[in-house]
Design brief:
alpha+beta, 4-stranded antiparallel beta sheet, 9 strands, globular, disordered N terminus
């Protein structure tokens, strides 16, 4: 007589069936996206500074998910590509630049539109980078301006596998 297979604990069975349902609803039937263990995103510093200045010069600012107050910021977003974007709101037409992108968006090198962001912290990731306040040094806008003045050309966001915070490097290439 065959041994009965032990039943999975109820919470595991519910979790597995919920994951299947969620993947089906999201049309992600292959596998759950997993972030790269260690990744560095590279951005054009001049374009990042332009987006940052746009946020600073705007009189109103959009709130990101989880934000409770509006302030000048860059949003780091993984969606249709991976990019930094000004949260500034100006009374200007919502026009696109020549290649069809929105202005004040800076795509990471190799992570432009139509790239698969699910390998990098999942799709629809959002993080707010405050430009004017810092708890551990000069504000981000000061770092960007100083680096640009000193001749830096690239802005690198490093996501260490084990850290809980981003590491910013401003350099020349």
């Amino acid at each position: 007589m065959p041994k009965p297979t032990p039943a999975a604990p109820a919470d595991v069975a519910v979790s597995e069936s919920f994951d299947v349902l969620l993947r089906e609803v999201l049309d992600e039937t292959s596998r759950r996206p997993t972030p790269d263990p260690d990744c560095t995103l590279t951005f054009d510093l001049g374009k990042v500074l332009t987006a940052a200045e746009h946020a600073l010069n705007s009189t109103r600012h959009a709130l990101g998910p989880g934000d409770t107050r509006a302030y000048p910021a860059l949003w780091w977003i993984s969606g249709d590509g991976t990019y930094l974007m000004s949260n500034g709101i100006r009374r200007t037409p919502n026009t696109r630049v020549p290649h069809g992108h929105w202005p004040h968006i800076v795509y990471a090198d190799g992570w432009g539109p139509d790239t698969q962001p699910s390998t990098l912290l999942g799709d629809d990731h959002h993080e707010t980078l405050d430009l004017t306040h810092s708890t551990d040094g000069p504000p981000l806008i000061t770092l960007l301006r100083t680096a640009h003045t000193d001749g830096a050309t690239r802005c690198l966001l490093h996501l260490p596998a084990t850290a809980t915070a981003l590491q910013l490097t401003l350099t020349t290439e």
